Amino acid sequence: MSISDLPALNATLNAVAAALLTTGYVMIRRRRKTAHKRCMIAAFVTSALFLTSYLVYHANVGSKLYPGTGPLRLIYFFILGTHIVLAAVILPMAIVTLVRALRGRFETHKRLARRTLPLWIYVSVTGVVIYMMLY
């Protein structure tokens, strides 16, 4: 694997994280707590792998400019802007949400998770959309 393969890997990791988050949500709604816990830990690890790969890629390559023009360019920058802001917000939220669950503080975990989950899914999905728009 080379540096040029990392954007595709990053998009894949984001897609897997979104799928794990969604599955984890379904599992907790079905009261399958062990399956929920496994999915959410796997989503966290997957997102951590994404972040590592993303940082390695951008440390070596820098930024890639969006090649499009017109209305699609505005849509791209809207998605990118919301993605960047929420990605910065979601990292501490995901950590705190996970720590609360692992410490058995389920009521506070649940309250925060209701905000963390949709934002985390949004960041994961828009990561894939940004990849598709750039490459």
Please give a structural write-up.
This protein has helices at residues 6-29, 33-61, 71-102, 106-134. By secondary structure, it is an all-alpha fold. It has one domain: Four Helix Bundle (Hemerythrin (Met), subunit A) (Up-down Bundle).
Keywords:
135 residues, mainly alpha, Four Helix Bundle (Hemerythrin (Met), subunit A)
Helix content estimate: over 70%
Give the terminus-to-terminus CA distance: 18 Å
How many domains in all? 1
- Rg value: 16 Å
Q: What amount of the residues lies in strands?
A: under 5%
Q: Which CATH first-tier class would you pick?
A: Mainly Alpha
CATH level 4 superfamily: Cytochrome c oxidase, subunit III, four-helix bundle
Summary, kept brief:
The protein is built from four helices and no strands. The longest helix is centred in the middle third of the chain and has 32 residues, at 71-102.
Topology:
Layout: H1 6-29, H2 33-61, H3 71-102, H4 106-134
Helix pairs in contact: 1-2, 1-4, 3-4
